[in-house]
What does this fold into?
Amino acid sequence: MGLRSTRIRGPLAGLVAALILGGTGLATGCGPRADRITDVGATGGTMVEGGTATMALPPAATPNWIFPIGAPGYLATYNSSLQHLLYLPLYQPEKKGDALSPDSPRNLAEQPRYSDGNKTVTVTLKKGYRWSDGKPVTTRDVEFWFDLIKYNKAEWGGYSPKLLPDNIKRFQAIDERTFRLRLDRAYNPAWFTANQLLYFTPLPRHAWDPDNEDPKKVFARLTRHAKRLSAFATDPLWKTVNGPWKVRRWTTSGQVALEPNNRYSGPDKPHLDRVVFKPFTTADSEFNVLRSGGVDYGYIPPSVMAQSGKFQEMGYRVDPWEGWAITYLVLNFNHPTAGPLLRQTYLRQALQLLIDQRAISKVIWHGSADPTRGPVPASLLAKDPYPYDPAAAKRLLAAHGWKAGDGGTLRCVRPGTGGDACGKGIEEGQPLKLSLLSQSGSTESSNQMQEIKSSYDKAGITLDVRQQPLNTVLGTTVPCERTEPLCKAWQLGFFGTAGSWYFPPDPSGEQLFATGAPSNMGNWSDPRTDELIKDTEYSGDPAAMRRYGEYVARKVPVLWTPNPAYQVSAIRNDLRGVDQNPTLSLAPQDWYFVKKGAGRK
It folds into this structure.
């Protein structure tokens, strides 16, 4: 699955291998038959308790981290999605209207209470939650998690300086179910709940740290166990859980089988006997297995959406999984030659005006993508500040001293820093030429890059596109100093086949566009951006997010590109209760099969 805001996280939060789908002809195969049931929908029907549901994992996605404190290199969303089925976080976001809310009936805690001018937070755990060995879930388990990240923050993949745990001066356990946090200053309660408390995950202190050892030693020991992938199903350490599921099988190839935790005391107890998450080396292989009925919950390429009726005849419903995300091309402002170009606001604006997001969304992504308008989900911005306008882009470039030379490529004819000049660091005669490192394996992404390249070529901008595997792109497009050799390795980067960045419920920019942020891959730094981000963190003014979004959208710190659905899901008609959460979290405890007449065939 994708990368989430822990960067993840997304990134590095959470990114997914591309949909590499070939052979998409709709052979009839042996898939589930539509005549099994007479009503078709995501809910309803006569429930059948029990059964096994199999879900396809993204191509080349192999879950490999069970410890619910993510480590760098193990931050893919499919890891955290599985962890949360075993170890409940205090708060779990769910979609409400066009936004996400941390107020869910699945929450382990009541809604937090803020006091002392929003410098103190009090949280009370809900009654009755127990670990699978019968011990109650208490504030000591929450404090255990906090101590682990506090004393091992450099090893925690979600750490960002001055945020959690740095912004908590004191953790105070009031009683078995209530704890209080003393913060280092006043924060916007909506932001702190959605983007800080969302991390809090009680861990079984009595089972993992019975002797109350030094948190560094405990963390090191837990990490050693977390790297023993072959032992996830047998290691006693991971058998003490408080979520609705426990591990039945976890192979080194990435197949995970979960079964109900019979001691689970939450409101959403599982209906199925087992849920299996099945890995695939390629999307081709997943598609073939889906057509033959080998998975109950899989995915199809966007190009097949127009033929969704064929899948309905085969017994599936087709439902794009939309993400709370944005997608973009990263710009390396510290590259020795491209950096001076990319640091010119007018040039970034021109580059954005040449990306026909609407046409790309409709034609290349077959309607399964929507334009990205800025640094927050599109629903939070009133309009696209730079809709496709090649003529405006050409005028903008000409007004700043760019003129077509031999071969049609634009060259700087007015160097300097004046209002009509090319800009600081750009030499006379320098060509407007850039290179893009893009993830391989997706027909849609490849076609999108070729469309952008073609649009740039027509405007006199040369764009060289190089494709590499996703992990290579992620390992290359990282924050860098101008003097570092790695900073010369890339100018523009793309890793957004399934979305570049998945937000927590509050889509603030402290992880993405703040100076020095861990996922600020292009080294963007702007005092006004930092100021507006702080406003979203500190101020309760509902307009703070809009001001941040509109300002950064206009500044174009990255090039906004169509935001695709995470996947186009194909789900068996007789599998109900599937909720495709925009954060990519899973709730298979709500899944159930339905029957026709006397039972399922």
About this structure: The two ends are 31 Å apart (CA to CA). The domain at 45-64+243-324+566-596 is CATH 3.40.190.10 (D-Maltodextrin-Binding Protein; domain 2). The longest strand covers residues 52-59.
